[in-house]
Amino acid sequence: MQAYFNYLVQERSLSPASCRLYLHGIRFLYLQVLNWAHLDVTLVLPKRPQRIPELLTRQEVTRLLAGVSSPKHQALLSIIYG
Asked: How far apart are CA 75 and CA 69, in angstroms?
């Protein structure tokens, strides 16, 4: 089973969350449908590196807020960005 999950991660490039979904589906099949007493599976799923979003510079934020004419909308954008 570990080889199958290695295939999902390496060949199909599925995320660990998607692999866990597959694992829960397999567990349901064996435990609920086939009425096995237990299913002990320990899988090693690599974590994906966390992607840090690109931030705006101070000048870009200033231009963005200056482009809004309504003070209400400018305040909303300031709050949302902050």
From this structure: 11
> How much is the pLDDT for 54?
86
Q: How many CA atoms lie within 13 A of 4 on its CB side?
A: 8
Question: CA-CA distance, 69 to 62, in Å (whole number)?
Answer: 13
Phi-psi region of 61 (alpha: psi -120 to 50; beta: other; left: phi over 0): alpha
Between CA 61 and CA 77 the distance in angstroms is 10
Give the pLDDT band (50/70/90) at residue 29: very high
Give the DSSP letter string of 3-27: HHHHHHHHTS---HHHHHHHHHHHH
Average pLDDT, the chain: 86
**Rounded mean pLDDT of 56-73?**
90
